[in-house]
Design goal:
By secondary structure, this protein is mostly helical. The chain has 14 helices and no strands. The protein starts with a helix and ends in a 7-residue tail after the last helix. This is Carbohydrate ABC transporter permease.
Amino acid sequence: MKKNIGKIILYIVNIVLGIITIAPILYALAISFMPPDQIFSYPPKLIPKELYLKNYLDALNAAPIIKFIINSFVVSLGVTAGVIITSCLAAFSFSFFNFRGKKILFVIVIATMMIPAESIMISNYLTVGSFGWLDSYKALVIPYLSAAMGVFMMRQYYLTLPKELYEAAKIDGCNSFKFFTRIVFPMSRPIVGSLGVYTFLVTWNQYLWPLLVTSKDSTRTVQIGISMLQFSENQSFGLIMAGIVMVLLPSIIIFIFGQKQLIEGMTSGAVKG
């Protein structure tokens, strides 16, 4: 009886938290389909009387949102691919190779997670500017091609794999690269999927760095594009919400289809040190 009551309370708490989490998104979706007179009506309306699509048309005309979405996809996919490759290779070295200073080097890599990104942003900007990469995809992608978080996640998973597997592969004439590409990497698909979804969403939501290194619409990302929908002389909440919905939709779709890999990856392998 007590267990059933505990489960009911847990379900109620989860439902309440879920409603609190999704309510702002649903409200933004509703506002995006409302005409101005309905948005500012009293009492406030939560459901639009009809689908008012002019807000979306105005958002597309006010700023090149589609171009910004494409830019964000290119940057996010590039960073995600880079982080997966560098993290897997580095973690493989830390897990299966024995070399002098391995533990110290790993500690140094993990220690970089404690450095705030804002503290090195100016130096990164000066470096990128000296290479002539401003207003280009290179400035948005290359500084984020490696991540200590990814190295840590992959290493913790690789440590759960039996060492005997590596020794048996070596006896059968399989070199380290073949062992990684044909055995280890396919076995680590859940954690790779988790890292990929996490990296994609983090990159998609970046604001400060793209704002710093881009000044042209040809390279700006969606987070910068949303700010262009706010006009000091005229605040159109329907237009702004329509832009927000268009920006949120791709990331929500990615999360929905990738949540299984995200959960499996986060819950696998993180016990060995």
